[in-house]
Specification:
It is a single chain. This protein is of the alpha/beta class. The chain is 29% helix and 20% strand. The chain has 21 helices and 32 strands. The longest helix has 20 residues. It is flat and about 105 Å long. The termini are far apart.
Length: 712
């Protein structure tokens, strides 16, 4: 790959020889020259590189559009469809900071990150919009919005309150209170209740009702203000021919299908942090103009990535009509995830009940994957293994170039990137602003909440001193809570292993000055030797690799580390032996094979590594004998948690007739207590409850006192 680096007007202290040394001859090809006006007088150098046909990386994002146009105008240069051109920002992210002279390791890391191959393509989700838009709001604003959309879209109005409708009937007009909005771009279903005496569909706008109403209760919105109406009913008589006014009409439930929804209400009818695509809320004029511009381009076929993968088999949401983990449902700000537990066992229902994720509503925040303890739902854009490769490349290149105490700054590609760029520009022009420190390595992701504890701990294992997650107004409050809980778990693990300092933090910033102050924090203790493992596509597998390496690097390894109760993906179970009857219902409820029985003797066995603390075993247990214990068990150098151990064991109860073991004493006592009053087990027959199944059948069919069907 050829990399072209430009220090526009020599505003950055670039060490291209240091970059060459860190990246090596292949990755550093093109860095022999530092350009100063690559987009202007030195454009020929770009064109020569473009014509070579090699993969091309340009260290300038400001003029990316110009370079793409220049590539298209260069004879002999492959098109971007054949050979994409990549861009990397080294200026605002470090070259303009106050410690830019020490930023060579970081710049080398950013260049190496940008040179990685693109992630594998993922499935897409399709939308189709025919341009049917419903505008909801007061008559005046709704009419104005309709006029701006009518030349491109098929407009319908749903009026909320007063205003003035024009005399010509230009649009389909409805009135009523909205009772529900469901769906997404191209597939909205809107329902409303029409309670006003005037049916706008029948109204001819002849204005006769307005003329005869003595109270002035009807205006040019053609709706009756019932607070003014005193029941003269002159309007009814005036509208006799059209029959549009009926005070005796029961409230009408109406609904309609639309491709798009424009909500002009003061507060949004869909109170979601991430509303569905195709729904726009505009409370003021600026928002209305922005919404109209997007609506006018929302006709046709569209697609987006399917952001997630879901494996129902290991989902810990529900078993046997019991609800366990609801973390993904609770955190989803788009309400794209719902429970599927109610369908278990029913016609068309799943054998294993889990969750349902509606891909058309999913916006790719990834918070569900961050909080999922089992890895049943995982992020797919990009997948875990690719994201792990990005993190390892960034950190290993930084270390190879001599960098120390790296802080990984995870930020969104939208608001997060914009704020970092603002900080970089401020550092260039304001003496009081330091900019992004040389040890802080920005990592852009689709959404800041999509990276979780498995990748955070892997980053520490790869040599990072800290992992920070930048959050702006873009992130929902639920995302902050979820990320904070997971960070407490991750920090508890590192603190328990003896690593000093604060390794994880949410960086709350809405302005460059606040971000600048937050990034100046002191480093925390890191590992002596960075790990080299590859991040797995499986969350639990990656966690095991990261924890094993951190244990190897720890000065001392405790037997167990207590973890916070909220959000812990690790833990043990405490079984009350006095209550437990060894019914083993918990074994069938466990979705992760953490619990097992023993075919040879009554035992409840447990593999702690597999437990995700979902609580299904505790909620299933009929005796309330199970309690969760969040912890990371590290006895025997971590080997103990991978091996099965016995949580409870009892002597088998032997059949009083044939002496065959068939249960436990507590289970038999419980059965006697519950069934002892049944006529079949009265008197001498009570011994049947202490017999195995075979002997019980024999006793029933051979006892002389039993009534047989042939005797009836």
């Amino acid at each position: 790959m050829t990399t072209l680096i430009c220090d526009c007007n020599k505003t950055m202290p670039l060490d291209n020889q240091g970059l060459l040394k860190a990246l090596g001859p292949d990755a550093g090809d093109g860095l022999q020259t530092v350009h100063t006006l690559l987009c202007r007088r030195e454009a020929g150098a770009f064109q020569r590189a473009a014509k070579s046909g090699d993969d091309l990386l340009v260290a300038c994002t400001q003029e990316s559009r110009l370079f793409l146009e220049l590539n298209g105008q260069t004879e002999g240069a492959p098109g971007v469809a054949e050979r994409p051109i990549r861009f990397v920002n080294i200026r605002e992210t470090g070259g303009w900071s106050k410690d830019a002279r020490g930023a060579t390791p970081k710049l080398a890391a950013l260049i190496a990150l940008a040179q990685l191959p693109e992630p594998d393509p993922v499935p897409t989700v399709g939308y189709r919009s025919n341009g049917r838009v419903l505008v909801i709001g007061a008559a005046d604003r709704a009419q104005r919005a309709a006029q701006m959309l009518a030349d491109k879209l098929d407009v319908s109005l749903l009026l909320q309150g007063g205003g003035t409708l024009p005399q010509p009937r230009s649009f389909a007009v409805h009135s009523g209170a909205v009772t529900g909005i469901t769906g997404w771009l191209g597939a909205f279903e809107v329902s409303w209740s029409q309670r006003n005496p005037i049916d706008l569909d029948l109204c001819t706008r002849c204005n006769a009702c307005i003329a005869v109403c003595p109270e002035g209760a009807i205006d040019f919105s053609y709706q009756v203000d019932l607070s003014k109406c005193t029941s003269h009913r002159d309007c009814v008589r005036a509208c006799d021919a059209a029959g549009a006014i009926d005070f005796e009409r029961a409230p009408q439930a109406e609904s309609g299908a639309f491709d798009l929804v424009l909500d002009l209400s003061p507060t949004p009818l869909l109170a979601l942090h991430q509303p569905p695509q195709g729904y726009f809320h505009a409370a003021d004029e600026a928002a209305l103009v922005a919404a109209v511009l997007q609506l006018r381009e929302s006709v046709g076929e569209f697609e987006k990535p399917k952001f997630f993968d879901y494996r129902q088999k290991i989902c810990a949401h529900s078993r046997n009509e019991q609800i366990g983990c609801t973390a993904c449902i609770d955190v989803c700000s788009a309400q794209a995830i719902r429970s599927d537990a109610s369908r278990k066992g029913k016609a068309g229902g799943a054998t294993l009940a889990g969750i349902i994720v509606e891909p058309h509503l999913c916006v790719g925040c990834g918070a569900c994957t961050t909080v999922c303890p089992s890895g049943a739902i995982s992020y797919a854009t990009p997948r875990l293994d690719h994201q792990g490769r990005r993190i390892r490349t960034l950190l290993s290149t930084y270390q190879r170039a001599g960098g120390t105490d790296a802080a990984l700054l995870i930020h969104s590609q939208a608001a997060g990137s914009q704020l970092i760029e603002v900080l970089g520009r401020a550092a260039r022009t304001d003496a009081a602003v330091r900019g992004v420190p040389a040890r802080v390595l920005p990592l852009d992701v689709w959404h800041a909440a999509s990276v979780g504890i498995d990748l955070w701990l892997s980053a520490i294992a790869f040599g990072a001193s800290q992992v920070w997650v930048l959050m702006t107004d873009e992130e929902a409050p639920d995302y902050r809570r979820a990320v904070a809980e997971q960070m407490q778990v991750a920090q508890a693990i590192l603190t328990g292993l003896g690593f000093a300092g604060e390794h994880f933090r949410i960086v709350e910033a809405r302005a460059a000055q606040a971000l600048d102050a937050a990034l100046q924090a002191a480093p925390a203790q890191s590992v002596r030797k960075p790990a080299t493992f590859a991040v797995q596509a499986d969350k639990r597998g990656t966690l095991d690799l990261a924890i094993e390496h951190l244990m190897q690097q720890a000065a001392t390894v405790p037997e167990a580390i207590a973890l916070p109760a909220e959000g812990s993906p690790f833990g043990s179970l405490i079984v009350d032996a006095e209550r437990c009857t060894m019914c083993l219902s918990c074994v069938s409820a466990c979705p992760e094979a953490a619990l097992a029985d023993n075919a040879d003797k009554p035992q409840l066995r447990f593999i702690e590594k597999n437990c995700v603390q979902c609580g299904l075993c505790a909620s299933t247990c009929p005796e309330d004998a199970i309690t969760l214990e969040p912890r990371l068990w590290l006895a025997d150098a971590g080997k103990a948690r991978k091996q099965a151990r016995v949580l409870n064991e009892v002597e088998p109860y032997q059949c009083i007739r044939c002496a065959k073991p068939f249960g436990t004493l507590k289970a038999i006592e419980l059965m006697v207590g519950k069934l002892g009053a049944h006529p079949m087990f009265q008197g001498a027959h009570s011994d049947r409850l202490r017999m195995c199944g075979d002997c019980r059948v024999i006793d029933i069919h051979t006892h002389p006192d039993e009534v047989r069907i042939t005797d009836v």
